[in-house]
Specification:
By secondary structure, this protein is an all-alpha fold. It is built from 5 helices and no strands.
């Protein structure tokens, strides 16, 4: 997963929770500009602590798994489906 996909997932979850970017910024102790840049992929780098704070504010987490180099993931298949 790259930062663009992460930003899209964060935007989707924020909207599903009925939360504004400003509310998410307040809850995650970041700026609204950071949230906007993340959601629009305008920011290429974002610190780990900021990402974790934003995810926690959305009741999301980050999972680490072994790389699956031979088969597509569910996310890969969903992206291919029109």
């Amino acid at each position: 997963m790259d930062l663009q996909i992460l930003g899209e997932e964060i935007a989707t979850q924020r909207k599903a929770l009925g939360m504004t970017q400003s509310q998410l910024a307040l809850r995650s102790h970041t700026s609204r500009a950071t949230i906007t840049a993340l959601e629009t992929c305008a920011q290429r780098e974002l610190g780990f602590n900021k990402v974790m704070a934003i995810l926690a504010a959305l009741n999301m987490d980050l999972r680490i798994t072994s790389a699956n180099l031979s088969r597509p993931t569910l996310e890969d298949l969903q992206r291919e489906t029109p």
